## 1
Amino acid sequence: MSHRRHRKTLSPFLHKRLVSAPLGAIVLGLRGVPAALVFAGLAAAPAGYAAGVADVAASTPASAQKTYAVPAGSLGGALAEFASQAGVTVQLDSRLVDGMRSQGIKGSFTPREGFSTLLSGTGLEIVESSPGIFLVRPAPARSSADVVVPDASTLPAVKVSANAGKDGADSLPVGYVATHSSSALKSDASILETPVSVSVVTRDQMTQQNAQTLNAAVRYTSGVTPETRGGVATRYDLLTVRGFDADTYWNGLKLLGNGQYAVPQMDTYLMDRIEVLKGPVSVLYGQAAAGGVLDQESKMPTRVPLHELGVEFGNYGHKQATFDFSGPLDADSRYLYRLTGIARAEDGQVNTTRNERIAIAPSFTWRPDDKTSLTLMALYQRDPRSTSYGSVPPQGSSLPSPFGPLPSDFYDGDAGFERFSRTQESVGYKFERKLDPNWTVRSNGRYFHLGQDYASVYGSGLEADNRTLDRYSIGSTDQLNTIALDNQIEGKFSTGSLKHTVLAGFDYQHVAGTSALGYGSAPALDILAPDYYQAIPDFARTVTQIRNNQYGLYAQDQMRMGHVVLTLGAREDWSNTSTRDVTDNTLIKQSARAFTKRAGLSYVFDSGIAPYASYTESFSPQIGTDAGGKPFDPERARQYEIGVKFQPANYDALLTLALFDVKRKNLLTPDGNNPNFQSQVGESRSRGVEIEAKANLTDSLNLTASYTYIDAKYLKDNSGLEGKHLASVPANQASAWAYYTQHRGPFAGLSAGAGVRYTGQTYSYDNDYKLSSFVLVDATLRYDLGHIAPRLKGSEIYVNAQNLLNKRYVASCYYTTWCAFGYGRQVFAGANYRW
């Protein structure tokens, strides 16, 4: 029996290897929400328009003129952006501007002039009720025909999104377009001025597409190949970015695993946005995969009261209940809370399997003053069961079989032996303090515990009769404790005509885990007459303890002079790892040190076009030694990227184009002279093009579209892969999604969305054959019941279908004997109630 056929099911780690001015306060006069509720968020003004950080408390005199640039978008958003740049407060009843659009403004104005220009032709006026506080109200009417103020009973329901900025403050609904990112530069940075590719999936997009996993959330994101293990591996977030593995983060801190099967996974219902930072990112994040970072940002406490309950049902026996409560605990909004939870149970797509989850995430924010914020966060997530982590053989899935195609719910395991149980618990904090208008300190920290028990039987290839599936067994019991800390100081100052935004920080990651892992034999399975309850022999386990510490110091300077933005960054990391085999009483200690850097140059035209070029690096420590006993050096990756971003003045949109070249070095591959050892001569490369567009074209229509071309190959390898394409990475991908809401007329309250996802041909692991391309269709309908009767205000019903046409397809063949079917049709119907 060959070594390759006896090889265990790949762990997620091994599988991946293979394949700032404050926002002006807005007062919402919502139905049922007092008009005196003020919420203010801290978010940087579009870079290049303002230098330094203004304090909310320092109001701007009504007679002072300065230059403003407010992009087109919703009128409410334009008023908020202008107030942000002016450092003043604007108050309004949001129903007055619901559905209104603004063309934005550019030029020099006093705050009063700017507000008046934005409100021109709307029937609304601005008055300064007190120094630095402006009120929007209906303009006095000379006759009944001059101004028509809608009756509150006939107004469309006001939709408030609790989207969180970097500090968890409230913000207006953003639709699909995010103009700032907290992950790309570890500060609230303008995406337009950031010289790297970053895509943001907003809460609105996730809700409208009903994305229930991280994979589902990024299906329409350029450069991302989601669900590389198809519909079987729901317990892990297996995907690639630009052809390579990417790391998952939560609130800016890495979700640390043990390199085998103990891998954290967060539920997307708990998240407000997902940022996809593409390419090597070690300069800010330390040891990192070459694909980049997927940072999941939690729902944070809000100043506006929020109450939501939801229920959902679907095929595969899907049942789900959710709740989300938030708001102030005192009249001054110094104490805020949020409590979010979800419970889900459903059958897995794979026969005999099931998914179950319960999660609750409480958080609390204390704001003793306008300059200080401390948020405490906790999580309890229990996954008692999860669908199979197995596979299907190529014959009958991607290759012909004399017995015809396999069913898409084919199960290669044993129902009496299969188990998966995972518990995740976490506590953490986010702290920010403005030392003065130009200097800010931040500190983020988290403790995370994961306990897991996993056992499975998996297929290892069909015998010559094409119906007998050889199988093996595996079991792993894990306990994992991790700590992640990140401390930063950010300052803004000028040296002559050069304006600087500097960031310096120290971060620390600690992993302490124990794993009892073993492999054994299992009876073969007749795929034509499967017996899923056979006697599985017990097997010995090896107990391993791993301890890892990483320390990093980093510095970054974003320099602006006129239209030019230069970003430079550098970092030094120290890592040490000890691996103890408790069973054999052996200990291996390794240490590594790495210096990484990044440089990027952007030119931001007044038209909103910003061409850029950048270079960035990453490193990732590797455990083990070569044939001479020398510890392996860290894997290294570097990326060259050029592109252009466009944020038009007349539309709320962001369009990006990027060309990239990523190269990984020091990859482990069999030693040509000592086959029982590995050497570090392996190299791989990915190059390609990404195009992405996100737009809120009107108050009714949201769009997102993308196209990706990737050419990913092994450049050097001793196992026969040299010159071959990376498995599971399509050369071409494209997607488009549109969502329309009818605000007026007889169909007011009705929303409809539809999307198409195209995935081109991919290669099998050894490139012996290609997998067919496929096209998937998604769709949704939603209806606000408040338009039927006032007593139903806040109630919503919806239906969502993913892979609407139930396309049968093979997502990947990620190893010689392992393939994976993609998700079949999933249909969800549910109801939400908000008050």
Note: Residues 1-8, 17-62, 141-173 have pLDDT under 50 and may be disordered.
## 2
Amino acid sequence: MSFEVLLLNLMLRFIFKNYQFVLALTFAIEEINENPHLLHNFTLGFDICNVEFEAWKTLKNPFISLFGKYNIPNYSCMRESKSIAVLTGPSGLTSAQIGTFLNLYRFPQLTFGPFDHALSDHNKFPALYQMASKDTSIANAVVSLLLHFSWSWVGLLTSQDENGMWILPELKEEMTKNSVCVAFELVIPNYALTLKFMTLYDQINKSSANVLIIYGDNEFILHLMMCVEEYFIKGKVCIMNSHWDLTTRRRYFMLGSIHVPIIFSPHHPDILGFTDFVKAVNPSKYPEDFFLARLWFLSFNCSDSESDCVLWENCPHEASFDWLPGHIFDTTMSGDSYHIYNAVYAVAQALHELLLHQAEAQTVGKRKGAVTSPAQLHYFLKNIQFHNPAGDQVVLDEKMKLETEYDIVNVWTFPEGLELKLNVGKFSPYVLHGRQLSLSEDMVHWAIGTTERPHSVCSESCGPGFRKSPQDGKAACCFDCTPCSKDDITNETDMEHCMKCPDHQYANTERNQCLPRAARFLAYEEPLGMALACMALSLSILTTVVLGVFVKHKNTPIVKANNQALSYILLISLIFCFLCSLLFIGRPNTSTCILQQTTFGVVFTVAVSAVLAKTVTVVLAFKVTSPGRRMRWLLLSGAPNFIIPICTLIQVTLCGIWLGTSPPFVDTDAHSEHGHLIILCNRGSLTAFYCVLGYLGFLALASFMLAFLARNLPDRFNEAKFLTFSMLLFCIVWLTFLPVYHSAKGDVMLVIEVFSILASSAGLLGCIFAPKCYIILLRPDRNLLHGFRDKAHTGRNRPS
């Protein structure tokens, strides 16, 4: 069988840790060469090209590697080179510089560094393929971490290139959705990073934001972190999208890190056998590898002290890269090495497809003459899609690539340059929202001397019972905490609005919970309700006793003097007036609500109209001067007795209209007393209520005026003065009642109304009947008609 050697060029800046890239390339090529199902009869090889740091030398070594030291590209056929593709990285800038040169010859270029948006321009780099997936979910991942740690006040540091211009709007949009604010936003150019950073030192170090989100390529982050350490940016958490190489830094970690690096590293599976392969690598296995020999010499000091020659016999026989500390050389496959591994397989798969295509298109006789050029590989690279030995899907077309999963890496830093990279969590965009981030917070190593995680907020959280009040002219994360008003609560932190408790509940003193209101009404069991009920019963019993006294002494002059029947009616109505106050005590229901106002209006109308009838009777009795007068006929015919039914009928009509239009009903008051739900009767129509009360007041005022006019009429048993005082007291009580009643709240209104009923009724009883009972019971000698006629005659013949 025939063999053709096809070289893969690996172009990178050679430093100690980058040698793992060489080992990943070697491991992948040896795997492919041992695979009988891939590139049968062909053997892959590779060449390593060291890209120098100086910009003007960047293309020197790649040029020599591809075309030879003395060949001129325009006059040397490209087929003389056996290279089929070039791997570049991890620097995006270096890949771009080399890519410009490779595009001239349509040479396939595969980059293995982090995804660089500057390289995604296919018009500028049509022959370039990025192995890393586009970091479309990085903004969501970073914000998820911020929310997990309750960091809402952060600073943004990005590079002034396509990467920085891409991430800023993505991050801001995601942060705005989740109420995370930007304390400061810094876009730093790569060419003047140190100078620019010096001018921004105060803004970064003195900011209350303790979290810095840094986005850029490896070189940008490396130089930025050197500035962060050199200028003593203290106590900041640096969240980054990429790792950097620590071996190039001179003073790093001399006293231990003063900031906390948290890195979102694209997740990749472990490649079976790679670690064992690295452990088995030594110069005797690859004697032609100059880089390996130099690393071995530097790591294990294999020289003879006398001759200073490298003698492998002087090296430890079991020496291995596994002996080296992890911060110097890591035997586990890094993300960039994983991309190299996939790149080699992608080239091998594409080359395999190309060779199969040529075999089908040509005859067996012409097959030996077939030429495989690098430019022919593009069609197959663009459409390549396969699963690598680890089971991961490899796709070079950016539109078909899956979103990236991230490992969250925390760098534990120690003095003397020691570090430990530890996976503390993972972010997966394929998990349900809210569960995308998984994190072991207890494994996160914060800054030296600190055990608690940093705090990064503009304003402290508003606890339950408070709401956020925005501060004028500041970000949404800057706010004041305002206590919720009465009966409003917040049961979570950082709520923007207070929630009102339902009517049957009230807010506790902390304003963080709604509690059920206790039902409240003027109950008989309460001291106040019991006192009012006892007063009503006592006064009604007293009125009954007075009625009994009047009935017993019905034939005495003082009982007969002022219409005996009207006195009985007045006393009976007063009994009902006292008893109607009991309707206002106890738990209200529909029946008691209707009876409260209507009974009160009717019985008081009867009482006041009885007083009016008695007053009219007194006036008519003293105005009768001759038997032929019409007033004498009115008095003898009992016309005053019709006042009571007529006045009562009018009041009953008003009450009927009230009940027919808008009757009283059971209602609740949740605002008058904190923590109580007062059950009371709603009057229904206020107009009807005031009509009933106004009509009653009109009768009282008419009675008062007539009694006042008849107060000086001569008669031993003239009760006009008593009627005047009783109606004066009645009017004072109810005129005082109206403003006090309307200014009161809750069951205090009922207490005032009950007290007014009892006071006005007691006033009528005391002013009208107390003097008469005094004469009947204690001064019977004055309860005689002796001298009545003479005094009456003298009074009638008194000159005017």
Note: Residues 466-516 form one domain.
## 3
Amino acid sequence: MGNNQNNGAADLVRARAQLLEGGHPRNPRLDAESLRSALVDLFELWLTGKGAELGIGPDSGLALVAVGGLGRREMLPYSDLDLVLLHDDVDPARVAEVADQLWYPLWDAHIKLDHSVRTVPQALRVAADDIPAALGMLEARHIVGDADLSNLLIGGVRREWRTGIRTRFDDLIAQTRTRWQRSGEIAHRAEPDLKNGRGGLRDIQLLDALAIAQLTDAMPGLGPDVPGGGLKHAHRRMLDVRTELHRVAGRARDQLRAQDADEIGAALRIGDRFDLARTLSDSARTVSYSVDVGLRTAANALPRRGLARLRRMPVRRPIDEGVVEHAGEVVLARDARPQRDPGLILRVAASSAVTGLPMSATTLNRLSEDAPELREPWPKDALNDLLVLLGAGRNAIGVIEALDRTGLWGRLLPEWGAVRDLPPRDAIHTWTVDRHLMETVAYAGAGSTRVARPDLLALGALLHDIGKGRAGDHSIVGAELATHIGRRLGLWPSDVRTLSAIVRHHLLLPDTATRRDLADPATVEHVVTALDGDVQLLELLHTLAEADSLATGPGVWGDWKASLIGDLVRRCRTVMRGDELPAPEPIAPELLAKAAAGGVHVELQPGDGKHTYTVTVIAPDAPGLLSDAAGVLALHSLRVLSAALGVEGASAVDTFVVTPRFGGPPDAGLLRQELIRAMAGDLDPGAVLAKRERDADGPGPGPYAQAQPRVLWSEASEGGVILELRAEDRLGLLTRLAAVFADAAASVRWAKVVTMGSAVVDTFCLDLGAGDSAERRAALERSVLEVVPQPAPKKPEEAGDSAVG
């Protein structure tokens, strides 16, 4: 009998394998939804047949119940098989025999099995004591055997869930938030957990559980016409991605790995990994919004007992025209007429942002159905409410997200569709483009008192990347869009031009400050000319640059970047006001004396920031000095945030702004001693750093980058050429680059070294002498790229796929 059992389960495995393989005329490849349905039918057929073989019939006192994926009819290729064998007044020996003959074939066939054998009262007690077990049994479904026994369990679990939800609700929410904290948000994770992450499949099951408790609709707050197709579509998309993840991985897996994303996107006909990321972001944010609404609705709908039943119902407190607070939410007043009040959407949104209270899902749905379009140009009150919303700091983020998920934000700002859920192409960015714009608005609000026109600052923050997701330079495209939007909002023509200029030039200050020599009058003149001498625009761009950097991700903004941009702005403001541009900052007299005296001097002083220091190196100017100096700093774990090079007579005066990777800085005397050793050839900083890197990373080619490094060339206004490197950082990168330049006999006139998180944008003004040529630049570029981290080499099969594509 054992052989028959094993063969039966083996047939099940073979049939599953055939379903997964597909791709042949006689066995076509099933799409994800059809595959799940086929797997449900396959497992049900096997279990039904096996149950009949073992005598699990209508009057047997035995019943087989499915929970988990099979219970939900969402069977994934390698999901666990979750089964409960129920029994009632059956000889224990008989129950044990049936269980063994049911479970062992599945185990022997290596099918993952989560099983239990219980009476109905035992199962009910488990559900009463364990919330995860209760959530699983809420999805129970009869498979074979005594249907009345299964119905006793299913009905009993649901009844006790409804009656006991008041005492279990807080624990349910606590467990949910713990899961979110552990697994993160799917919408903003590079490798999201599709099952447990915030906005994932567990959250949809949570909504179903709240609906069974009769506390909320299973699909709250969203209809089929919202962006992305609503919750039902988001659920199916999430299931489809997880189904293909199983198929690609060849085993059960919940976390979407970056290396599988392109294949999964192609299988689902979504596109590449970026298109897949955008789809997942849309689906996860739709689910997250629905869960937020569902939890609020459920909390307000919890049955009240004891003295709580005697309390008065919540009163309606007026907030604005047609807007009131009720039961902790912003809702419409009873006399509100959305059909005749196009500005009501923005008043509701502004009220929510100012009070910090969420907008009722019912209110948003009513506005979506009844509120007319705003006429163009917008009335002043509507524009004012928009500015109130944008000026509410971080409260604005949740409000805009809710408006967007219900289709109202796209009605107000149709251009938003191109950036909605658009994933960043640069790893330094934390958020999707639309969320980045919201974050920038929030950060800009903190700097609104630093500008004369906080309204234009808020609008500029909202629109500065609106041109992304379209063909062409996003700053140029965005400026054109900003012009159209500004006119629609009813701005004055002069303000429309300023708003367009903000979007057009929002990268001007950070790019110039971190890549050009600020002491060069041509650099300042370039900025002044681009801004047409507009001091107000300069101030707006200065504040926006900080907000944009803070909203990008950790490490993008810091004291070093603030100092560089601040210096540039001060110089530009001086020229704009008609004052004579000051000469470059003179070297301090004591440093001049040391440079004239010769020798090697190293000074270390506290910097402008709490954890930054300025290291000044004075030494005889010679090839390799920059490499030696930067190498000594790296040996002492001093991360170079920026560097400026100068020459006085025969001595080089190099200034580095550094921050220790940990602890405090070393003594300046120690740095001097090791620099002298390096200059004398007794210490090779590059070799020591390379050994440290090998020890840290183990054998192999060294650190890999996520992105392909790039070298950009341009001509310097003062002569020479500018080499700009965009790459990922590594230990001692600056000393390696300086060594490359020394070996190539390329003299470094000045440099701007900037580190942003794990990425660097390093700009060097080089003097290649009379031998400057395209061939020499190409050779130098190859040498530079050899010392920066490169992307991991593709696997042979990946390389083959790329060639075919």
Note: The chain has 31 helices and 17 strands.
## 4
Amino acid sequence: MSDFRFAFRQLLKSPGFTTVAVLTLAIGIGSATAMFSALRALVVEPFSYPNSAQLAHVWSGDGWPLSQPDYFDLADRSTSFAEFGVYTPRPANLGGDNPEVVTSVSATPGVLRAFGIPPQLGRWLEPVDEDSGAAPVVVISHRLWQRSFAGDPALVGRTIRINGTLTTVVGIMPANFEFAAPWMRGDTCHMWLPLKLKRGEGHRGSHWMCGIARLKPGVTVPTADAEIKSIGAQLTQEYPNTNAQKKFLVRSLHFEMTRYIGSRVWMLFGAVSLVLLVACANVASMLLARSAKRQAEFGVRIALGASRRQIIRLALSESVLLSLGGAFVGLVFAFYGVKLLALIAPVSEARRAAMGLDLRVLAFAVGVTGLTALIAGVPPALAALRISVADLLRTDSRGAAGSRTRHNLLRGLIIGQVTIAFVLANGAALFSASYVKLFSANRALSTDRVLTAQLHLRSERYSKREARTQFWEQLSERLTALPGVTAAGLVTQLPLQGGSNMNILVNDEVFDPLAQRALAEIRAVTPGYFAAIGVPLLHGRTLQPGDAGKDEIGVVVNRALADKSWPGKDPIGQLIRPSNEKPDYQARVVGVVDNLRQWGPETDPRPEISWTPDRAWGNSVFLVVRSPQPASQLTAAVRDAVQALDPDLPLAQIRTMEGVVDESLAGQRAVVQLVDFFMAVTLGLLAVGLYGTLSYHVLQRTREIGVRMAMGAATGDVVKLVFRQGSVWLTIGIVLGIGGAVALTFAIRTLVYGLESVDPMALVWATLAVAVAGAIACWLPARRAARVDPIIALRTD
């Protein structure tokens, strides 16, 4: 304890040094702690379900949903599942004084039971709720209960209006329940309605349900996966025309929910670890420079009988105290850092709420503090070990003893900081360039002149196709006639938001269940959609009402499908058929439009077919309205047009296309912002570290500089001397950093859009960033050296 008391008094005598060192470590510890909180909440321990390792998703392929008949066969034949159910997202209209669209799913009883968290009030969905004649029931979320029903404890057993039907509330889920579903896009699910399935109905080629299961005790995911694959092989033998290419599989819930975000969060955690390493090296450099003044003291202690262990403990005591101070301030930084991460992270509200400074995060902070104290304290301790009493007696009071070891360590630390800073700067340049490429690739869609909104026809009034068709046609006419609207249309799925697809046959292809046929995205659109969304017609014409035939329909395809199916030929008039045993129609190409990206901003455009909605008017569509003015001004008029047709229908997801693109880029934008922030912090720490080390070298060479100036050296010569020393360290660090940047490029290639090899411009940008930070750090010590008075310098002992 006496060593720590002595070190504490020494630190109090140098408030400037202590403040800089504590803040430097606080930045590193705080950033690492905040990022670990996000890592734990999003990747390491993202769920709080009972025995969450037993939860798994069941697919009919890599990300392929299940068909209704396949689900029944898997449920009947499998023995690995304690609970097994399927669900499909179906936004619902919640009626009342202020009708709204609520994120919900239709699910079988096994879905909620699989998660293992019972309702706070009431019950789960039960098998009796699936009966065709059963009364409508719903389970709602705690948040919806509080928001829309003021937390009324008597709500269970009462009816509310959902999709125009009085529905009994049978359960309310607890506040901490999160419905982890890969199809929910990070939204919070608020209602669970019964999914009423009948055996013997549905087509095995129609995949629309996500499977969720809880494994029986003792059953592992690989065991369940092997069983499901075996059942899948049986189904292939029994139904070769529909199941020949299905590869049934079971994957853990943890894998499915973290497979895309996990790699990016781990990458960011690696980046912030480098920031912490630079902070430690920075403080180690300052402690090394500071220890030069104490080597005489260490020599005296050794001469009086102090052991090497005591000297090391004394040298480490300052780094321990500085690390503790850095941890205390760093936790304050981490508290606000977590709030910032929760603000910019494109994840569900439950995942944002899970980011916090709980006991495990605090334990991580304690471990990081200890590691920081060790890393920052070892170099000064090594320098102290090299002190020789004989050398001290041969040197003057400035204490050059041990300087070679100290100088070598200082050079190594500074070069290491430059190397890490260069790697981070190169990474920031790569991600920033990637984001620019992504935005440019989707620039045509990003406009505030197009308004979009989603509408759901779920009530009994629209149960028949004719009623839905009439409503959509009337709405399309009303939207087109609105003042200030230049084009309006309806579409079943917006660009960048996913979609539906099917295998098709083109040219002379015939159905073969073992052949891999082309996969095409399918969208139903009204004739005005293409003009409203802004996609140009390249060839032929757009859709017309007469294209909705019975045996043959007219379709518009995109350039990707035309180039793939009919390269060098005129696609107009070509025929397309569904890839099944007995296709009930064929489609003739009447037009070709340019490509739009369907499954997010990073995916290449896929082959796409657009047909008239008369063939497949569903319950949900998106409205697309174009205006020469900012389209958000049309929100009230669009809502009035809908209300005029049905006052009980609420609009959902009202956004401009600029907002749609912005939302789709949220994940990439968050990564770019964080990497840029870490780079800026690292460059700042590098500048501080280089400044401190050069200042120390100037101090050590004060007499030499005085002699040079006395012999006629000009001020510029002295400045060049300091800059030359800094430039050598920067050059070595940049050369090493280029090697690290090349390795980084190949490590993150799959995470960076458009990155195929080393980017020379990113290397140039990183070099400039490090060089500018280094030049700023060299300038102040150079100015100080240039102002040295030769007479005073020569008098210095």
Note: Residues 403-441 form the longest helix (39 residues).
